[in-house]
Amino acid sequence: xxxxxxxxxxxxxxxxxxxxxxxxxxxxxxxxxxxxxxxxxxxxxxxxxxxxxxxxxxxxxxxxxxxxxxxxxxxxxxxxxxxxxxxxxxxxxxxxxxxxxxxxxxxxxxxxxxxxxxxxxxxxxxxxxxxxxxxxxxxxxxxxxxxxxxxxxxxxxxxxxxxxxxxxxxxxxxxxxxxxxxxxxxxxxxxxxxxxxxxxxxxxxxxxxxxxxxxxxxxxxxxxxxxxxxxxxxxxxxxxxxxxxxxxxxxxxxxxxxxxxxxxxxxxxxxxxxxxxxxxxxxxxxxxxxxxxxxxxxxxxxxxxxxxxxxxxxxxxxxxxxxxxxxxxxxxxxxxxxxxxxxxxxxxxxxxxxxxxxxxxxxxxxxxxxxxxxxxxxxxxxxxxxxxxxxxxxxxxxxxxxxxxxxxxxxxxxxxxxxxxxxxxxxxxxxxxxxxxxxxxxxxxxxxxxxxxxxxxxxxxxxxxxxxxxxxxxxxxxxxxxxxxxxxxxxxxxxxxxx
Amino acid sequence: xxxxxxxxxxxxxxxxxxxxxxxxxxxxxxxxxxxxxxxxxxxxxxxxxxxxxxxxxxxxxxxxxxxxxxxxxxxxxxxxxxxxxxxxxxxxxxxxxxxxxxxxxxxxxxxxxxxxxxxxxxxxxxxxxxxxxxxxxxxxxxxxxxxxxxxxxxxxxxxxxxxxxxxxxxxxxxxxxxxxxxxxxxxxxxxxxxxxxxxxxxxxxxxxxxxxxxxxxxxxxxxxxxxxxxxxxxxxxxxxxxxxxxxxxxxxxxxxxxxxxxxxxxxxxxxxxxxxxxxxxxxxxxxxxxxxxxxxxxxxxxxxxxxxxxxxxxxxxxxxxxxxxxxxxxxxxxxxxxxxxxxxxxxxxxxxxxxxxxxxxxxxxxxxxxxxxxxxxxxxxxxxxxxxxxxxxxxxxxxxxxxxxxxxxxxxxxxxxx
Lengths: 499, 418
Known about the structure:
- Chain A: Keywords: Endoplasmic reticulum, Glycoprotein, GPI-anchor biosynthesis, Membrane, Transmembrane, Transmembrane helix.
- Chain A contains eight helices and 25 strands.
- With about 500 residues, chain A is an alpha+beta fold.
- Chain A folds into three domains: about 1-250, no CATH class; about 255-450; about 460-485.
- In chain A, a hairpin with a 4-residue loop joins strand 8 and strand 9.
- Among the domains of chain B are: about 140-250, no CATH class; about 255-420, no CATH class.
């Protein structure tokens, strides 16, 4: 097991290293204003048997959980995903062990609507970017209670207070990543807590494990695509005092000055429109070509009609430019209760309004609207025919083409497999717009059949259809009793004869 | 006004001008507004045609649920942006041809004057709903011309042509199969005029069956079946399982949850969301009253009295009792109205006609209003609103169907001259 704990500070909050107390198995200080990232790497032999069996069947598995409560990020950890539980998964070739995945996920995360990768997962485009996984799954998940319980039970000794409290601190984390791939043969858990003033005290209670603690803040970089970090690193148990460090690396994810809001226009009806409010249309950098995108993660009850969004006039009227990616397939007709796939994700390029020729952008806030459609949801009772539907915020970012030469070598804080990064070229830089609002979930109500009023529907329909059938039958019988089968002409002729 | 209907040129050029105006208005609206005039289905057809043009299957386009013939017909729409509207022109021409055939059938079968025939054909030709549907690019009008051509061929005793059209129609949209029993029943010796002397006197079953199987009946059965089988074999050999799945099986297995005019709609939503909880599997027995009336009882009782009006009654019954019902289906029976109305009590008794028409419109308006509240205001109007509206619409349809049955049953009405 290896541990890396990083505290990230704003330059003005930088800690005086003299205030750090380093002992043979711990590091502590009274007060520290910083965000925290914990990264714990487990070897295969340190994992519970049941987890190992599932991972053995995976080529790669990336789990991303994001809290529904809004939080602040700090460079270099600025990348975002929609709140909820995301899963990016490539099964091992020629292995049928992937049917263990869903039961395992349910055991770890609680009651997920996951039947099997074949039934519940959607496929991702694979040809574009080697770093992205083959399939995707998502489910809204508000808290990691079940994960914490599972971890405490399976990973900690019941007497190890440090272990128990470290795991239960995941309940306050804003995002948790779990990564596994066959090449590294290791499982990494990365958790992020947003900036706040905290008491620092880390102990290394397990022998023969490496614990590295860094306290870093952002320095001004030399190159625009680079991030520069300076501060102190301490390997607990080896170092007797923190050693200063300064390093730069080309970064994939960057912060920006503008923000976005996401809300639904009312009334939402069966065709809700998601309105994105962007605080400014100013691109993050003028040296590269950048485009603004929204990446939507839509649970199966709501979807985008790609055919509707192929019309240029409609797109332009909503300040959209193009739909670059949408999960295939997206059934355009099926009710939600007849589907097993988790839903769909969509990448839409937004079209910022330009104010004039000399300045192609404006500092004015503006909006873009994404038309969506609802599926029918199961009928309900005692809700007056309305069902709530929780829809996570999208993520909004500028995607800028990086210099020809610049690559993103694996940097210690890089983050990939976010669902949208694989839809761009490997040299793309992402400038993330932080969302506004406390909760990153929009809740709308969907009209459904009210079971309280539907008791008479079955008998009523049957009765009316029967009545209609009998009425037509009666009319036919009257016709038949007067003149069976034959043509009217015959009858007229006969009547004429009689006369 | 009197003059207007006496001139075929005036009536037909008005019908054409109506469609040309709507066609160009549609092009203008599509080019200038995010709200499209063109029907969503037209984009489905043309996308499918594009797939076909590139050598792919039309079923690669999601929600393409038609015969590949339609995609083939619309291949010119893939040539250029101008040709994109070719399909609408084709459908509109189909309308006009159907109108012309209506006139021919009226003149031939009802011995109607040209003026009177044109007046009744105008119910189709000058109907803004019909013209709008075809210029928006909905293919339902093609069905109209197919079934009217079928009727015309039968009336002209062009049995092989009729068989071909019947097979084609069923291949295209399934429902025209209900016309097979009425046409076959109608084609008796009296119509065919080939009664062999003495053959009708025998009453044992064998000779009755022999008697029933006259040449025309055999000819049309064989021709239509052959056409149907050849077309389906051809399409299956090219496009395989997706052809069967999307063109035919889909209509059996579909879960029609989205609200529509059918009386079964709410029940289908209820039962599909919780399978196995209903007392009777109503949605699977729903076809019994529908097919009993439209494919058996109505043809048997009425076909020999008045074939065109019987076809109206059958279509009306089929659409009213169907598990899915949208306003495009109304075109299926509207095309037969010119044959029925001249002898109908709906025209003879003014108030009855007005009452029927207003009820038919009012029930739809109620339904549309409830549907609007659901779709755009998000109100749960499934029950009682939409359900009651669809039940009212069904009852109205059934009441009108009863009137049609009685009218056709009582034979040609003596002309009342005012």
